[in-house]
Amino acid sequence: MAEDRIKPFTLDFDLVSGLCKSGRAKLTHRFVSNMAAQFNDSAAAEEIVRNGDKPIYDFYELDQIPETAGDLKFGTSIVYAGKVGDEYFMTQGHFHTILETGEVYYCLAGQGAMLMETPEGEVHLAEMKAGEAVYVPPRWAHRSINTGNETMVTFFVFRSDAGHDYGTIKQKGYRKLVVERDGKPVMIDNPKWAE
Amino acid sequence: MAEDRIKPFTLDFDLVSGLCKSGRAKLTHRFVSNMAAQFNDSAAAEEIVRNGDKPIYDFYELDQIPETAGDLKFGTSIVYAGKVGDEYFMTQGHFHTILETGEVYYCLAGQGAMLMETPEGEVHLAEMKAGEAVYVPPRWAHRSINTGNETMVTFFVFRSDAGHDYGTIKQKGYRKLVVERDGKPVMIDNPKWAE
Question: Which of A82, A156, B94, B110 is the most exposed, fewest CB within 10 Å of its CB?
Answer without folding.
Answer: A82
